[in-house]
Amino acid sequence: MENKVRLNEQERQFELLKDGKIAFVKYECSSGGMNFIRTFVPEAWRGKGVGTFLSKHALNYAREHHWEIEATCPFIQAYINKYTEIVEE
């Protein structure tokens, strides 16, 4: 698994690509905020920490840019609940 997350602004998602497969976290932007709306990991990559890796990267990106974080994606919500320090100031 390549560990380089790519920000695809056209598709509004953070991506990991390998062997023609893609894992991603989709987002929507609003004034001063970023809402994470969907996480997708191909079945062959599930259970290997890919979703967690992408979630951490996406949330850190939003935090570094001082954007308000919202998560309507259940996977991202669960990540935030488990690792609350990611959204604490």
Note down, in words, how this protein is organized.
With 89 residues, this protein is α+β, with helices and mostly antiparallel strands. Strand 1 and strand 2 form a beta hairpin. The N and C termini lie far apart (31 Å). The model has no long low-confidence stretch (mean pLDDT 90). The chain has a five-stranded mixed beta sheet with strand order 1-2-3-4-5.
Task: Using brief descriptors, characterize the structure shown.
alpha+beta, five-stranded mixed β-sheet, 27% helix, 35% strand, globular
Look at the structure and give the mean pLDDT. 90
Oligomeric state of shown chains? single chain
What is the string of helix and strand elements?
Answer: EEEEHEH
* Helix count from the secondary structure assignment: 2
Task: Tell me about the largest β-sheet.
Answer: 5 strands, mixed
Structure classification = alpha+beta
Proportion of residues in β-strands: 25-35%
How many strand units? 5
Shape: globular
| Major β-sheet strand ordering | 1-2-3-4-5
Helix content estimate:
25-40%
Q: Give the low-confidence spans.
A: none
Radius of gyration based on Cα positions: 12 Å
Report the end-to-end length measured between terminal Cα atoms.
31 Å
